[in-house]
Amino acid sequence: MKTLFFSSALLLLSLFSSAQLHAQHTEGNIKQNYVVLTKKIPQLQPIIMTAEALKVEDSKAFGDFQVIICGKEIGDITDPEKINGFIEKATKAGVQLVACGFSINKFQVDKTKIPEEIEVVENGILHNFQLQKKGYKSISL
């Protein structure tokens, strides 16, 4: 009797899961979204390369890719020699660069020197968690 009950429950769960997956795929709304939290500008090179590879791998399923920059080296985003090449590469790859406002304030970064291509959020760590709650795959470097 137990075997029959568990078998029936397993069958129902399998059918329900399969129907849900099929509905999601037929809607075409499945996008792979990514967020990376980094503290060092040079790490943008491998991060952007990763985004480019995932864009090819995911094809039409590639969604949003954000890089949140925070920490004591946040001031590097105001140095054109350090950031401009990465801004160009990120834009080309469809990567959105985001700066942590908390770090900007804490380390007294001149906000007028932040490139307009970089979005500033109030709290980068909170922004990361909010994206994770929306289903973004996340990694911190």
Structure description:
This is Intracellular sulfur oxidation DsrE/DsrF family protein. It comes from Aquimarina intermedia. InterPro entries: DsrEFH-like (IPR027396). The chain is of the alpha/beta class. The longest helix is centred in the N-terminal third of the chain and has 26 residues, at 2-27. Helix 2 (44-58) packs parallel to helix 3 (80-93). The chain folds into 2 domains: 1-29; 31-140, DsrEFH-like (Hypothetical Protein Ychn, Chain: A), CATH 3.40.1260. The relative contact order is 0.17. A 5-stranded parallel beta sheet has the order 4-3-2-1-5, sandwiched between helices. It contains 5 helices and 5 strands, in the order H-E-H-E-H-E-H-E-H-E. It is globular and about 40 Å long. 50% of the residues lie in helices and 20% in strands. The termini are far apart.
Structural class: alpha/beta
> Main sheet?
5 strands, parallel
State the end-to-end CA separation.
52 Å
Q: Tell me the total number of β-strands.
A: 5
Which strands sit side by side, in order, in the main sheet?
4-3-2-1-5
Shape: globular
Question: Whole-number average pLDDT?
Answer: 85
Q: What is the helix tally?
A: 5
CATH superfamily of the largest domain: DsrEFH-like
Low-confidence stretches: 2-27
Q: Architecture of the largest domain, CATH level 2?
A: 3-Layer(aba) Sandwich
Q: Give, in order, the helices and strands.
A: HEHEHEHEHE
Helical coverage, percent range: 40-55%
CATH topology of the largest domain: Hypothetical Protein Ychn, Chain: A
Top CATH class of the largest domain: Alpha Beta
Q: What's the number of domains?
A: 2
Range of strand content: 15-25%
Keywords: Signal
Signal peptide: 1-23
Protein name: Intracellular sulfur oxidation DsrE/DsrF family protein
